């Protein structure tokens, strides 16, 4: 097989040929109101909480909520776009809002409350945005000189502490997370903010991901970025379970970033029985651009650079020694969430909600969300699929030298660093992005093509794991891996039976649909990664958030339990509503729900945790 054919095959798999595949507005079937996505109500992401609901309110329950289900579903996410007369520019910038659904003996109450961050306090006091966020620059302070701005670069307290992404337990306490070193301890029953923690005060890191891993023992691991004498490095931080989890925190492994001035953007990482899995995508944070942004008062997204012709790297770090064991390469892709990672029969399996590039970040700007109905490219920009990568351990190859040169000739390996592609920051810049349409029907960019038989060219597939179409081949600079698609749905905010199957072999994950052009964009999805089949739940104009699996008291199978999800309803007249849906995890059918009518708008949330003892 020639390099040209191989590269063409990979382009078909990821749908990346931007020059040949343009959106055809005529094929998009505008509805009578001039909307490209009439089934998708974008206003659920544009709502702002105007009044907190500090005291729990009663809802209207229907169906059957199991009597054994007791605890609190805690949620975190964007709470308000507004500060005075100003608005944030990106969904990730909105003030953090907590939600709580308290479940006890079949009854449910609801309340919400803003995380009382220093950023929120400063903005409210000034009645304007005075702290720079991911996609929003602060109003310049005329009292600060260029020297003040330069010195502020090296002070963590000058950055945002708006922890609006997720919630995780540390022992019996709960903390909100973002991608800066700050987290906030919250009361799981009142939602009051009780303390602020800066991880940099305990370990030498400058940031960490918003998705740590909690072991059954209670020990917590997270991935951060540290600065070393030789440049930036990824650092695995261990928070041992105990009374002094932060004071006892320490770095157990470090890995130099591939580019000294461009550490990779990290939102999560993987963990298996023996390995930490760091997936280093070619979306980097330019340190030089970061300094420029601080001095010129730009938002943080201006520092992101996407190297589309550079590979995504998979690094396996041995947990026992902290040493790098092996690295692998794949075609470039972008991701936010790893579904799960585990070891099986001499392989490490890594399942990821994948995108060809980071354009989906652009889709979450205020302007892009507000104008999505007039943008024929929007759905394609947000198009992703769950992919399985299989990494063979201790792999060797029978490739001949000529075939090694074939692999090396690909854009993935051994090329000089190309000029970076700057991320776009407004919907008006989306005109040249790929959109796939066939006779008006949306087509998956990850649709399986006919499998190439590289063994005929002398290269052997190093993956010997059964029941997978994922592949791996030895190249001149390392092992190149090619994924398989787990299902033909866009999946986001994936969850598994975490307490029992995190880092272990598993069969099911649950997610929300990320396909805005689906017949029902509010679909909840259960994916069977063994049979590659799906079960779904949806209801017209209902938009659930991240589905969380709660096992039965004595589960007999991996899916013996319920799915909990908060839900909102689309349309301006429905913004003062929030609900809790309870599904049977086996069948994805509704068991019961509780509906709440609130005194103001309730925004859609992102991530959360089920706290069984918070009743």
Automatic annotation (TrEMBL):
Keywords, in A-Z order: Iron, Metal-binding, Oxidoreductase
Residues reported in the UniProt entry to bind Fe cation: 211, 267, 337, 607
Manner of cofactor binding, per the entry note: Binds 1 Fe(2+) ion per subunit.
Single GO biological process annotation from the record: retinal metabolic process
Range of residues in the leader sequence: none
Cofactor section: Fe(2+)
GO molecular function annotation: beta-carotene 15,15'-dioxygenase activity; carotenoid dioxygenase activity; metal ion binding
The protein's name in its UniProt record: Carotenoid isomerooxygenase
Organism of derivation: Drosophila hydei
């Amino acid at each position: 097989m020639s390099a040209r054919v191989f590269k063409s095959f990979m382009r078909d798999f990821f749908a990346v040929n931007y020059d040949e595949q343009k959106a055809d507005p005529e094929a998009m079937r505008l509805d009578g109101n001039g909307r490209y996505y009439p089934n998708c109500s974008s206003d659920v992401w544009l709502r702002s909480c105007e009044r907190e609901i500090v005291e729990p309110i009663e809802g209207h329950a229907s169906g059957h909520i199991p009597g054994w289900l007791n605890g609190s579903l805690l949620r975190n996410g964007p709470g308000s776009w507004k500060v005075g007369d100003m608005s944030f520019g990106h969904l990730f910038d909105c003030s953090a809002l907590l939600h709580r659904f308290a479940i006890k003996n079949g009854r449910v109450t609801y309340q919400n409350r803003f995380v009382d961050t220093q950023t929120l306090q400063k903005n409210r006091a000034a009645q304007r945005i005075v702290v720079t966020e991911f996609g929003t620059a602060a109003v310049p302070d005329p009292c600060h000189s260029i020297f003040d701005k330069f010195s502020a670069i090296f002070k963590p307290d000058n950055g945002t502490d708006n922890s609006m992404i997720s919630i995780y337990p540390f022992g019996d306490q709960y903390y909100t997370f973002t991608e800066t070193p700050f987290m906030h301890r919250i009361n799981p029953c009142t939602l009051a903010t009780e303390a602020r923690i800066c991880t940099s005060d305990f370990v030498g890191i400058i940031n960490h991901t918003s998705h740590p891993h909690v072991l059954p023992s209670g020990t917590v691991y997270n991935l951060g970025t540290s600065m070393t004498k030789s440049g930036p490095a990824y650092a695995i931080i261990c928070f041992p379970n105990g009374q002094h989890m932060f004071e006892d925190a320490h770095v157990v492994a470090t890995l130099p970033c591939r580019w000294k001035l461009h550490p990779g953007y990290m939102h999560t990482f993987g963990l298996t029985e023996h390995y930490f899995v760091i997936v280093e995508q070619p979306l980097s944070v330019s340190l030089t651009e970061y300094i420029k942004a601080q001095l010129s008062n730009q938002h943080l997204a201006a520092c992101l650079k996407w190297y589309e012709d550079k590979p995504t790297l998979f690094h396996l770090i041995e947990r026992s020694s902290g040493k790098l064991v092996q690295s692998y390469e794949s075609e470039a892709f972008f991701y936010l969430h790893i579904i799960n990672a585990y070891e099986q029969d001499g392989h490490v399996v890594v399942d990821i909600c994948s995108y060809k590039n980071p354009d989906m970040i652009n889709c979450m700007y205020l302007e892009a969300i507000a104008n999505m109905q007039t943008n024929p490219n929007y759905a394609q920009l947000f198009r992703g699929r769950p992919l399985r990568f299989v990494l063979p351990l201790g792999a060797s190859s029978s490739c001949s030298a000529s075939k090694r040169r074939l692999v090396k000739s690909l854009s993935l390996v051994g090329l000089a660093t190309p000029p970076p592609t700057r991320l776009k920051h407004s919907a008006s810049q989306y005109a040249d992005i790929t959109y796939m349409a066939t006779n008006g029907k949306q087509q998956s960019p990850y649709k399986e093509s006919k499998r190439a038989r590289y063994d005929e060219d002398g290269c052997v597939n190093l993956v010997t794991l059964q029941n997978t179409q994922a592949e791996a081949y030895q190249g001149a600079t390392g092992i190149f891996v090619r994924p398989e698609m787990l299902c033909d749905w866009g999946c986001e905010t994936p969850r598994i039976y975490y307490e029992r199957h995190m880092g272990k072999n598993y069969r099911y994950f649950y997610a929300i649909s990320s396909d805005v052009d689906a017949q029902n964009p509010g679909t909840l999805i259960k994916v069977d990664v063994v049979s590659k089949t799906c079960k779904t739940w949806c209801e017209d104009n209902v938009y659930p958030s991240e589905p969380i699996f709660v096992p039965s008291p004595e589960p007999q199978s991996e899916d013996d339990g319920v799915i909990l999800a908060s839900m909102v309803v689309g349309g301006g007249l429905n913004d003062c509503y929030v609900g809790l849906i309870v599904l049977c995890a086996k069948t994805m059918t509704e068991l019961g729900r509780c509906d709440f009518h609130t005194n103001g708008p309730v925004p859609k949330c992102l991530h959360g945790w089920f706290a069984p003892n918070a009743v």
